[in-house]
Amino acid sequence: MFANTLSGRFLWLVVIFVMVAEVLIFAPSVARYRADYLEARLERAQIASLALLASDGSIAGELAAELLDNAGVFNVVLRRDEIRELVLASPLPGPVDASFDLRNANLLGLTRDALQEMTQPEPRIIRIIGNPVQRGGLLIEITLDTAQLQRELWEYGGRILALSLAISLFTALLLYLSVRVFVVSPMSRVIRSMSDYAANPEDATRIMVPQSSIAELREAEEALQKLQTDLTGLLRQKERLAQLGGSVARISHDLRNMLTTASMLADRIEMSEDPSVKRAAPKLVGSLSRAINLCESTLAFGKAEDPPPRLDRLRLAPLVEDVLESEKLAGGDTQIAYVAEVAPTLHLRADGEQLFRVLGNLVRNARQALEAASKPGVIEVTAAETVNNGQSGVCIRIGDSGPGLPPKAREHLFEAFQGGARKGGIGLGLAIAAELVRGHGGKLELVRSDSDGTEFRIWLPNNA
Description:
Shape: rod-shaped
Strand order of the largest sheet: 2-1-5-4-3
Number of domains: 3
Order of helices and strands: HHEEEHEEHHHEHEEHEEHHEE
Distance between the termini: 51 Å
Helix content: 55-70%
Radius of gyration: 50 Å
Strand content: 15-25%
Number of strands: 12
């Protein structure tokens, strides 16, 4: 469990990285130690050989053997004045296994030789060539057993590894504590604050207060504080709107009943023979009708959302003809021509009832706009297969030759209660139509609206 935490993973990474760095230090250190060891043997061998030469060879054999033993070598060869001379010698326990020249050795070669020496399974006899110190000749060669060299290399390497491990653990501990104090603890506090806020997001006292002194965490805390503040405000507004919506629904219900009664009375007033009453009665009936329509639309919009569309394969042409025929009967204005250009073979997958409501709403708005303009006009519905963003579908266009939409209506055309597309409208029809089209995975948009008329476009994906 600890290994899956941020602190745990950081701790392991620090240990690994420090050990890698120490390994990179370990190899050159061991190489340097081997080179110093061999150079010390060369120097001792040179001193021993110079002692023998100074005595003109009068040193007895036991003393010569003691000199070789103190130098830790078997043989010593000096080259002076281009003459190679075996100065000290003793029997070799075996053949010479390898020769190493220290005169022009580089770090890479020394490192390779040191690592090979440490991995040798058994000690061996090697020859070492180097430069004499204090101008004691041109060259010095020695032969020695690597048993002691291997032992000291492993002891030195063990000390390096132990020190590296101690340094890595100490460094990792310090970094671990630093991460806990400066990163993990502030993050844990932010997480606790988020959990506490999630338990009751409407409680403003649970909103986080930025406290971190680290710039990045401070920015995160401030962003979270702003998010929580905005969310709390939205939740409060939503609650107030829900309460207001319930009140409006109850008021609209009661008001609709009152207006219905008033409308019936207005119908009776319309039968009056008084000329002034006759002139005022139609306006009164119209006002009451609009008020009743407002109440009914508000109640309908406040109900549950429409169910998801039940997609069936259907022909579009008969559906468009039914919509246009219904509007002809509802309008009764012979000055308006209805034109449908839909191929009889055009099919799509859609909810027939919901699509009828969408088309009916758009055609009705067009008819009412033409009726309000009191001039002849044309309402045209066309449809064709098309491709939108690589997806095949059906594009339906509903256009009219009316006066166009007012600028204010275009700004919030598909938003509920933001103003209708016609005078007296409340802006629910197009909002519901756009919602139904989105439920089909399509899009409803206004193509144009000017003095030459208005055109809407519906795009529906064809999943048939």
